[in-house]
Design the sequence.
C-alpha cells in the first residue's frame, strides 16, 4: 500500500496552513477570491495549466475541458486552480512554435515552483504544447497528468476524406501545377478543419500525445479520443480525480519516466510512423530527467520495430479510424512483446495492466506484426560527412526509388532565397537534383521551423514530378511526406558541413546504408571552411537573444543548455 501524505505534508500547506503573517495574507487573499477556509484547508491544490487561446483553434474547446477537470478535482476533494499558459500553437505562431517550446516549458516550471500547487493537470495537444508542458513539469517534478486535447474530426471535400496537413501539401502542388482551380482550392479550405482538436493525421500532435500516453503520463486511452467525443469530457473529469490521488501518494514524474519508458516511446513512435519531430522532443524531455537519448538509440529500435499504424501520411487512414479500431491501447497490446510492460503509469498501474483488455477492431487500420506495413519503423537516422552528428528521414513517407540516390545540389542560402528562386522557369533543376536549404536550424532560422519539405519547383510539377531528394537543417511538419532529409547536425549557421555545400556538388543519399554525404574531398571542404563566415545574428535582444545563445543542436533536443543540467533549484522561501 502506498504511503500517503498527511495534510501538513502538502506543499500548499506551507502557504496556507502555518500560523504566520504570510499565511494570514495568503488565506485572506483566497477569501478575497470568494473561497472559504474549508476550500483550501487540508486539501491538495491542483493547477490546471490551460493552453486555451483564441489564437489556437486546435485548443478552442479546452475551456470546457478545464471545467471537466475541475469537476473531477472537486469530486476527489481537491481545490482546482486554472492557470493560463502560452499555447505554442503551430498554426499562427511565427517563425515557428518550436521557437517558443522552451519558453512554455520554463513558464510551466516557474509557475509550478512559485505558487501553492501540489500537483498539475496539463492541457494541450497542438504540436509543441505537449513536450513543452511535460518538460516544465519534469523539471519541477511535482505530480502531474497530461490531458490531450484530442484530434479533430476528418476533413471532407467533394465526397473525399481530407487529412489536415498531408492533403494541403498534396493539393497545393496540384494547384501550382495548374491542375486544381482556385474555386476548388477555396472549397477545400472550408472543409479540411471542421472541429476543435489537433491534426487528425499522424503528425507531430498525434505522435506526441500518443507518446505522452506511452511514457505513462495520461490515463489509458486518453490520446486517441477525438476532441468532440463526449468520452473526452469524461476522461478529463477522471484525470481531475486521479491527480488528487497522485498528490496524496506523491507519484512524481521521476517515478514514472525511466529509460525503459523512453524506449517504449521510441518503439511506439516507429510503430506509428510518427513525426520526425518526436525525436527532438523525446531527447529534450529525457534530458530534463537526466536521461541521455542518443540518436543511435532511435535507429537501433527502429530496425527492430515494425510499422503497424496505417495512418496518413505514411498510410491510408485518419485518427477517427484509429480510435474506432481500438486506438493506441489496441496498438500497444498488439506489440506488447516489444515493450517494457512493467513500466509504471500515472494511474498507479503498469502499462501492461492498462492494455491487457484492449482489442483491435480493424486490422487494416492497426496492423499486427505479421501484417505490418513495413518490417521496421518509419524513421531512419543518417550519418556521413554532411551530417557528422546525425540527420533523420521519414522513409515510410518517402518515395522508395529515391531512398538511394545521387544527384547535384541546388543550394538555397535561406528560406527567402528559396521563395525568390524556386519557381523561376529558368531554374537549372531536374528531377535528379538534390534541393538543399540551409540557415534553417535552431540558430539559423532561428527556432528550426518546418521548412524541411522544400516545395518541388513549379517547372518540375508541370512535368509530373511530385517528389525529389531534399536536404536541410530544418524540421518538417509531421503531416508532411516526401524524401526529405532533416535535422542535419551541426546546422549550417554554426559552421556545420551544410554551410560548405555549393550548387553542383554531388550529394549521395543511401537510406539502406544510413548515410548522407557530399562527394567533395576533405581537402576541398577544409579550404571552404577556412573561407566561411557566419551570418550576423538576427536577434540582438530579448528572448530571441537568449534562444540563439543557449539552444542546443537538433541531436541534443534543441533545448536550452542551462535547462538540461545544473543543481536542483529547490523550493522557494516563503517569508
Sequence:
Amino acid at each position: 500500500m502506498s504511503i500517503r501524505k498527511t495534510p501538513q505534508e502538502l506543499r500548499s500547506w506551507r502557504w496556507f496552513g502555518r500560523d504566520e503573517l504570510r499565511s494570514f495574507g495568503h488565506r485572506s487573499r483566497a477569501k478575497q477570491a470568494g473561497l472559504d477556509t474549508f476550500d483550501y484547508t487540508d486539501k491538495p491544490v491542483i493547477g490546471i495549466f490551460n493552453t486555451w487561446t483564441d489564437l489556437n483553434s486546435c485548443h478552442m474547446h479546452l475551456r470546457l475541458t478545464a471545467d471537466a477537470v475541475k469537476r473531477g478535482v472537486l469530486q476527489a476533494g481537491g481545490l482546482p486552480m486554472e492557470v493560463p499558459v502560452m499555447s505554442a500553437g503551430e498554426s499562427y505562431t511565427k517563425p515557428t512554435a518550436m521557437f517558443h517550446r522552451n519558453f512554455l516549458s520554463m513558464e510551466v516550471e516557474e509557475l509550478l515552483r512559485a505558487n501553492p500547487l501540489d500537483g498539475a493537470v496539463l492541457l494541450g495537444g497542438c504540436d509543441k504544447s505537449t513536450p513543452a508542458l511535460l518538460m516544465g513539469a519534469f523539471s519541477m517534478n511535482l505530480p502531474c497528468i497530461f490531458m490531450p486535447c484530442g484530434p479533430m474530426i476528418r476533413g471532407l471535400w467533394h465526397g473525399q476524406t481530407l487529412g489536415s496537413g498531408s492533403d494541403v501539401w498534396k493539393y497545393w502542388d496540384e494547384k501550382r501545377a495548374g491542375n486544381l482551380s482556385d474555386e476548388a482550392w477555396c472549397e477545400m479550405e472550408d472543409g479540411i478543419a471542421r472541429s476543435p482538436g489537433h491534426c487528425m493525421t499522424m503528425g507531430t500532435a498525434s505522435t506526441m500525445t500518443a507518446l505522452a500516453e506511452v511514457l505513462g503520463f495520461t490515463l489509458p486511452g486518453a490520446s486517441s479520443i477525438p476532441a468532440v467525443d463526449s468520452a473526452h469530457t469524461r476522461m478529463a473529469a477522471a484525470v481531475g480525480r486521479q491527480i488528487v490521488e497522485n498528490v496524496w501518494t506523491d507519484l512524481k514524474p521521476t517515478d514514472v519516466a525511466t529509460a525503459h519508458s523512453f524506449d517504449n516511446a521510441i518503439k511506439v513512435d516507429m510503430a506509428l510512423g510518427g513525426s520526425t519531430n518526436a525525436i527532438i522532443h523525446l531527447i529534450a524531455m529525457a534530458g530534463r530527467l537526466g536521461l541521455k537519448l542518443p540518436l543511435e538509440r532511435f535507429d537501433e529500435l527502429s530496425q527492430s520495430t515494425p510499422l503497424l499504424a496505417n495512418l496518413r501520411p505514411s498510410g491510408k487512414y485518419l485518427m477517427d479510424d484509429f480510435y474506432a479500431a481500438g486506438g493506441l491501447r489496441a496498438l500497444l497490446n498488439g506489440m506488447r512483446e516489444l515493450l517494457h510492460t512493467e513500466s509504471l503509469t500515472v494511474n498507479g498501474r503498469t502499462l501492461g495492466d492498462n492494455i491487457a483488455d484492449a482489442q483491435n477492431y480493424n486490422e487494416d487500420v492497426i496492423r499486427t506484426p505479421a501484417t505490418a506495413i513495413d518490417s521496421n519503423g518509419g524513421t531512419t537516422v543518417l550519418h556521413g560527412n554532411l551530417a557528422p552528428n546525425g540527420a533523420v528521414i521519414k522513409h515510410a513517407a518517402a518515395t522508395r526509388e529515391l531512398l538511394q540516390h545521387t544527384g547535384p545540389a541546388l543550394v538555397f542560402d535561406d528560406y527567402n532565397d528559396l521563395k525568390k528562386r524556386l519557381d523561376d522557369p529558368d531554374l537549372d533543376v531536374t528531377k535528379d537534383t538534390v534541393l538543399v536549404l540551409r540557415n534553417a536550424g535552431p540558430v539559423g532560422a532561428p527556432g528550426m521551423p518546418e521548412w524541411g519539405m522544400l516545395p518541388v519547383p513549379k517547372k518540375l510539377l508541370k512535368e509530373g514530378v511530385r517528389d525529389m531528394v531534399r536536404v536541410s537543417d530544418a524540421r518538417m511538419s509531421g503531416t508532411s511526406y516526401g524524401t526529405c532529409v532533416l535535422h542535419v547536425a551541426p546546422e549550417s549557421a554554426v559552421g556545420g558541413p551544410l554551410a560548405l555545400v555549393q550548387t553542383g556538388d554531388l550529394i549521395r543519399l543511401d537510406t539502406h546504408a544510413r548515410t548522407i554525404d557530399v562527394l567533395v574531398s576533405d581537402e576541398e571542404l577544409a579550404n571552404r571552411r577556412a573561407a566561411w563566415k557566419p551570418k550576423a545574428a538576427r536577434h540582438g535582444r530579448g528572448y530571441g537573444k537568449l534562444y540563439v545563445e543557449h539552444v542546443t543542436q537538433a541531436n541534443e533536443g534543441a533545448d536550452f543548455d542551462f535547462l538540461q543540467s545544473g543543481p536542483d533549484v529547490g523550493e522557494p522561501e516563503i517569508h
In short: Residues 411 and 501 are 7 Å apart (CA to CA). Residues 156-191 form one domain. The chain has three domains: 43-153+195-355, 156-191, 380-531.
